[in-house]
Amino acid sequence: MEKVIRGRVWKFGDNVDTDQIIPARYLNTSDPYELARHVMEDSEHPNFAKDHKEGEIIVAGRNFGSGSSREHAPIAIKYAGVPVVIAKSFARIFFRNAINIGLPIVEAPEAVDETDHGDEVEVDLEKGVVRNLTKGKEFGATRFPEELWAILRAGGLMEYAKERLKGGK
Questions:
Q1: By three-state DSSP, how is residue 72 classified?
Q2: Rounded-to-integer distance, Cα 8 and Cα 145, Å
Q3: For 153, what's the count of Cα atoms within 13 Å in the CB-facing half-sphere?
Q4: Which of 127, 123, 79, 131 shows the shortest CA–CA distance to 105?
Q5: Host H or E run for residue 121
Q6: In the sheet where 4-11 sits, what is the strand order?
Q7: Fewest Cβ atoms nearer than 10 Å: which of 15, 25, 62, 100?
Q8: 3-class DSSP state for residue 64?
Q9: Distance CA 78, CA 71 (A)
Q10: 105-107 and 85-87: which strand pairing?
Q11: Crossing angle for the helix pair 92-101 and 146-154, nearest 10 degrees?
């Protein structure tokens, strides 16, 4: 996993719940690529799945991922090619599900306030910094504790567990 991620922003508002991220009507599949085809379909950007390009970043307001405990939501985002989500805050279960499947998420309220749709941003996961390259501004962001960082570096909890069982670090 990249420690520094750079991409164009898709901006979303507050309280984007899991039904907006991946509508329940698509939960009859566990194919991550099929889920990705419908990601954000019921959100304020219903054409996100068709119009975004791999590597583009989601930036959102408060309480991103609220609603249910379904892992489908962060899986759909990850398999759509979104390398990181930046938000003012995340619902707790979404936060942990994202880490468990290896999707980096970063809380950076000031960065969200100072970032617009289409801006170019850079996220340094290791240092906990978000840079808005379009506006030339830098903001502090969540830095993961070593235990969560290790899970993310491994690509998710299952890969981390496999490494640990093999005696890796």
A1: helix
A2: 27
A3: 14
A4: 123
A5: strand 120-124
A6: 105-107, 85-87, 57-60, 4-11, 120-124, 129-132, 137-140
A7: 25
A8: strand
A9: 11
A10: parallel
A11: 50
Tell how strand 137-140 and strand 129-132 pair up.
Answer: antiparallel
CB 120, CB 55: distance < 8 Å: no
CB under 8 A, 24+ apart: contacts of 104-108:
104/1, 104/5, 104/152, 105/64, 105/74, 106/130, 106/141, 106/142, 107/141, 107/142, 108/139, 108/140, 108/141, 108/142
Please state whether the predicted TM-score (pTM) of the whole model is above 0.85: yes
Q: Tell me the pLDDT of the chain (169 aa) as tens digits.
A: 778 999 999 999 999 999 999 999 999 998 999 999 999 999 999 999 999 999 999 999 999 999 888 899 999 999 999 999 999 999 999 999 999 999 999 999 999 999 999 999 999 999 999 999 999 999 999 888 999 999 999 999 999 999 889 886 5
**Cα–Cα distance, 75 to 9 (Å, whole number):** 19
Other C-beta atoms closer than 10 Å to the C-beta of 80 total 22
SS3 (DSSP) at 75:
helix
Question: Exposure of 167 by Cβ count < 10 A (0-12 exposed, 13-18 middle, 19+ buried)?
Answer: exposed
